[in-house]
């Protein structure tokens, strides 16, 4: 059941599809790949202007320092774009954190750069679902909520980061601090095409090992060499041996080597690991250390490992279930069926949950085929999902939600 005041607020979102689509198409027209700093700066300007009418404090937050390992095995700084931090009523007793990302997986030179309509309700375009559509839904919901009689009872913070698609290295401190100030989290990744939400999530870590051996002539004195390529291959196989029901391991790339007549003295191995539980993450960390020590000894090489688990596992425990049930209740009041299932995908919701925050992280519009040129947005879900979030905010304001 909806209160009369709630119904009046939700009615403000009727017919809002056109305005949201105009924003989504304008934002998607600007390439904002995670490494396109110019495009990200332009997108940040557009988003700041879009959120300005809400009357909240808006500031740009530079990215924290980050680094990567080059194919030459050297650590170098890696720049990320600025992030937007938007705050309303920070003194409120109950505060909600809403997060979204402005970056996409499509680089400035990718062929997928424009939107097109597949049918009257399906928009294909870069980032239209993941997650410029989600940001439009978030903004529409906040706009409606601010017109409600419940607004004064709730404070909110929005973080729109520039590096979510690359595990949020530059925005991690901003997200962590905001999560610790707030009482629950809402993240606007897209729901599945049928409306299903992501429940529990696996964690994720990206790692790089730079392996230093010794060069030698492959014919005259190969025994004097220490083959870094062989060591990298051995390490990849040992890491793959850690795979289990609760842990996936993907050795993704080996770089290095040179002419066939030289024993290679340098290799770089890159891999991803996805633990489903905290125990699996601990086992993975121990397994990396054991494999590196064994390979270094067996091949007489030096190995340096760079990386960490940037996304901790996010189990669907009773703490998380509480917020999901509230979302389900709000959906029922609107005639929307809400279900969820576990996924191996990761997002900023993993990191928010790791601070102890209850978080639902697929509150964006329905969509699919993300991270591909077939990405699509179900435009008929825009009003539906904006109403769901607006009602959720009103119910939280009325309940006095605590962590």
Describe the structure.
The chain folds into two domains: 4-201 and 313-399, Aminopeptidase, CATH 3.40.630; 204-311, Alpha-Beta Plaits, CATH 3.30.70.360. Helix 2 crosses helix 4 (128-146) and helix 8 crosses helix 10 (382-399). A six-stranded mixed sheet has the order 1-4-8-5-9-16, with helices on both faces. Helices cover 35% and strands 24% of the residues. The chain is elongated. It has 403 residues and is α+β, with helices and mostly antiparallel strands. It starts with a helix and ends with a helix.
Topology:
Elements: H1 4-11, H2 17-28, H3 37-51, E1 57-61, E2 67-69, E3 75-77, E4 83-88, E5 95-101, E6 116-119, E7 122-124, H4 128-146, E8 155-161, H5 172-181, E9 184-187, E10 197-201, E11 204-212, H6 228-240, E12 247-256, E13 266-275, H7 278-299, E14 302-311, H8 318-334, E15 340-343, H9 348-354, E16 359-360, E17 367-368, E18 376-378, H10 382-399
Helix pairs in contact: 2-4, 4-10, 5-9, 6-7, 8-10
